Amino acid sequence: MWKPSERLMDTIRHYASFPATGVSLRQMVQFGDRSSTGMRLPIALQMPGPAVIDYHLGTLFRASQFLSEELPIRLAHRVQDLGELPDGLSEMPSIKKVQDWYAQSFEEIITLPRPSLTQEVRARLLRSSRTNGGASKILSETTQNPSVREGQYRSSPSSAAYTNGNGKAAASGRRYFFPSDDHGDWPPELRDYNERFAKTLQTIKRRHDSVVTTVAQGILEWKRNCQRMQIDSTVQSFLDRFYMSRIGIRMLIGQHIALTEQSHVQHPNYVGIICTKTNVRDVALEAIENARFVCEDYYGLFDAPKVQLICKEDLNFMYVPGHLSHMLFETIKNSLRAVVEIHGADKENFPVTKVIVAEGKEDITIKISDEGGGIPRSAIPLVWTYMYTTVEQTPNLDPDFDKSDFKAPMAGFGYGLPISRLYARYFGGDLKLISMEGYGTDVYLHLNRLSSSSEPLQ
Ligand SMILES: Nc1ncnc2c1ncn2[C@@H]1O[C@H](COP(=O)(O)OP(=O)(O)OP(=O)(O)O)[C@@H](O)[C@H]1O
Ligand SMILES: [Mg+2]
């Protein structure tokens, strides 16, 4: 089994002394290569200037360079964080295992050989493409994430001195999106490096697939060890930062792999894994269908409680469809479970759960309204804590059970709501819950459509 050397741990400590640099959805989507795809960016993102700009290779290389520094910083914070958990939690075998994954991935990135480039190529890489420089500067600006208190998801107490990683990083010239002058040919080393880098990222992404289940396993081991029922606020905020950071790292990695593979070229509405025209109705219909299917399966129902969707057909916005479907699936699944449990699985006609989508200038808000009996007021704060569930027997955690994501069949892990809220907040949205005990629950999913807000910094 792989173990980090002392020297590697020293390097990790060094990297962890730097703050992470937040990237916004807008910055991520600027890689849309309009020349070869004919893609139209949303009005707000259309840049003046000639339409034919092929800034792919050099720009992608610059992004690879950015990530080859940024990802190790983020990974290093996680290694440290995992090593500083209270009350022996750090010593749990599953936590150690995850810590080693982070250290190993860190090592793989920092030891990846860089290409040797001529002075001329370096200079050209640094030169911003003239047509884009001005516009991209405006677009690259990130704003404070409205759903997050400053420093809320910050790594570790040791980084408390930093106020804003973005400002600091900008001063040192580190930037995710930098349109370089891509007219003409680049040396093959550039493409080679991009490909090697993307391959490394792929290995890393796969290694970390089962992080959520394995950390959850670690918490269970620890709870059993010290006979705790609930996790305290230190562990809760650790998990919040940890999973938030994971969302960010996976977003950057997933985006970069997709951009390198150019898979978005085949689909005009996609830039990497971001869909510039995510159709809310389509995503919601699919989530409803999946949640109902799981519900029928779990309770042995012929027909799961109905869900009514109220949404304009042509409501599109820029988002990551995978994130949206995750949040909707989890919240609808919760509603269906509550409805079945309160009315009994043998009831003929369940009350209908309503999913209402509203389009505002700032937000798209989705309300999931059920008549599942609600939640007692005293339990409301608990629903946001990890591992809080009203399922009697938490199903066995099998790390191989669903490698790609943490989707439990019906319920029972107490991760559905807190993780969904992190996804919402990641791009400046939020998830809120209001309950009427004795009647039902309303969940409000706010999605920020301006999307200039920075990732919550870690
Ligand atoms: N719409 C709802 N109506 C009533 N109770 C709810 C509703 N949504 C959530 N809850 C309560 O909050 C708890 C936590 O929900 P959460 O989705 O985080 O975890 P879970 O559903 O128990 O497990 P899983 O991780 O598999 O989703 C649930 O166990 C349930 O008691
Ligand atoms: Mg749930």
Short description:
By secondary structure, this protein is of the alpha+beta class. 47% of the residues lie in helices and 10% in strands. It has two domains: 6-36 and 53-128 and 177-270, Up-down Bundle (Butyryl-CoA Dehydrogenase, subunit A, domain 3), CATH 1.20.140.20; 274-448, Histidine kinase-like ATPase, C-terminal domain (Heat Shock Protein 90, 2-Layer Sandwich).
What does this entry look like structurally?
- The protein contains 15 helices and 8 strands.
- With 458 residues, the protein is of the alpha+beta class.
- The protein has 2 domains: 6-36 and 53-128 and 177-270, Butyryl-CoA Dehydrogenase, subunit A, domain 3 (Up-down Bundle), CATH 1.20.140.20; 274-448, Histidine kinase-like ATPase, C-terminal domain (Heat Shock Protein 90, 2-Layer Sandwich).
- A 5-stranded mixed β-sheet has the order 3-5-6-8-7. Strands 1-2-4 form a 3-stranded antiparallel β-sheet.
- The longest helix has 29 residues, at 233-261.
- Mean pLDDT is 83; it is low at 33-55, 130-136, 156-172 and 402-407.
- Bound molecules: adenosine-5'-triphosphate (ATP) and magnesium ion.
State the main characteristics:
five-stranded mixed β-sheet, binds magnesium ion, alpha+beta, three-stranded antiparallel β-sheet, Butyryl-CoA Dehydrogenase, subunit A, domain 3, 2 domains, Heat Shock Protein 90, 8 strands, 458 residues, 47% helix, globular, binds adenosine-5'-triphosphate, ATP binding
